[in-house]
Design a protein that fits this description.
elongated, Helix Hairpins, clathrin binding, about 65% helix, coiled coil, DnaJ_domain
Length: about 170
C-alpha cells in the first residue's frame, strides 16, 4: 500500500469543510449595527431638538403678538391724536414732523425741528422726512420692546401717508 502523503491522515484530523460549525459572527457586522443605531439615534435627537426649537419660537412669537396688541390698546389713542385732526383727517407732513418728539420713545435720538423752519424751507421737509423714516423704519426695531415697535410702525405709516399727500 501507498504511504500516506500528509501527516493529517495520521493525526485523525478531517478536512474543515466536513465539520459543521456554529455560524460565524463577524466583528464588522456588529460595528455596522452599532453605527446604524448611533446614526438613527443622532438623527432622532436632531429632529427632537428642531421640534423643540420650533415650539419655542412659536411661543416667543405668540408672546410678542400679545405684547404688541397690549401696546396697541395703550398707545392707539395717543398716536391717533398725533396723526389725525379732530375731524379724522390726516395731518400735514410738516405738523407731524414738527411734533414727532411728542410720540417717539425715550432716547430715540430724534432732534426736534420747528414747524416754522419746515414752512419756510421746502427742502428741509424732504430732508427731515427721510431722517424720520430712517429712524422709524419697522425693520430697524425687530428686537425692540413691543411699545417701541408699535410706535415705530404707526409713525412710519403716518409719515408715509402724509408725505404722499403733500
Amino acid at each position: 500500500s501507498n504511504p500516506p502523503s500528509s501527516s493529517a491522515a495520521y493525526s485523525g484530523v478531517t478536512s474543515r469543510a466536513a465539520a459543521p460549525s456554529a455560524p460565524q459572527i463577524r466583528a464588522e457586522s456588529l460595528d455596522r449595527e452599532a453605527l446604524k443605531a448611533a446614526r438613527l439615534k443622532a438623527k432622532e435627537e436632531r429632529i427632537r431638538a428642531k421640534h423643540e426649537e420650533f415650539a419655542s419660537r412659536q411661543r416667543e412669537e405668540a408672546t410678542k403678538r400679545e405684547a404688541k396688541l397690549e401696546a396697541q390698546d395703550r398707545l392707539a389713542e395717543e398716536l391717533d391724536h398725533w396723526a389725525y385732526t379732530e375731524q379724522g383727517q390726516p395731518k400735514d407732513i410738516r405738523t407731524l414732523l414738527s411734533n414727532m418728539d411728542d410720540v417717539l420713545w425715550p432716547n430715540s435720538g430724534w432732534k426736534a425741528v420747528s414747524a416754522g423752519e419746515l414752512m419756510v424751507n421746502t427742502g428741509a421737509v424732504k430732508k427731515t422726512y427721510r431722517k424720520a423714516i430712517i429712524l422709524c423704519h419697522p425693520d430697524r426695531h425687530q428686537s425692540a420692546p413691543a411699545d417701541q415697535q408699535y410706535r415705530a410702525d404707526r409713525i412710519f405709516n403716518a409719515l408715509n401717508e402724509a408725505f404722499k399727500r403733500q
